[in-house]
Design a protein that fits this description.
single chain, alpha/beta, 4-stranded parallel beta sheet, globular
C-alpha cells in the first residue's frame, strides 16, 4: 500500500507521534511518499528517523491513501493535492 503524507508545519514537540506514525507504516510494509516541503521540515529534525520516502513535488502522484497532519488549512491543502 502506498501512503501519501501531507503537512504544512512541524513542531518537534510532536516528534514521538510523528516517529510512531512512520514506524507503524514501515512495519506494515507501506511505501511512503511525503509532500516535498513537509519532508524538508521533517528532515531538519536530526532526531527523527525517517524511512526512505519519495517526495511529492506536484499533484501528479499515485497513492492508495493520503494522510493530512495538521489542522483545517492542511486538510484543505491535502484535498487540493489529491483532488485530481
Amino acid at each position: 500500500m502506498k501512503i501519501a503524507i501531507f503537512g504544512k508545519q512541524y513542531d518537534s514537540n510532536y516528534r514521538t507521534i510523528v516517529q510512531q506514525l512512520f514506524d507503524t507504516l514501515c512495519n506494515r510494509g507501506c511505501e511512503v511518499c511525503v509532500d516535498a516541503l513537509f519532508l524538508d521540515m521533517l528532515s531538519k529534525d536530526s532526531c527523527l528517523q525517517l524511512p526512505p520516502s519519495t517526495p511529492i513535488c506536484d499533484n501528479n502522484f499515485v497513492a492508495d491513501m493520503a494522510l493530512s497532519i495538521g489542522g483545517d488549512g492542511t486538510f484543505l491543502y491535502t484535498a487540493a493535492c489529491v483532488g485530481n
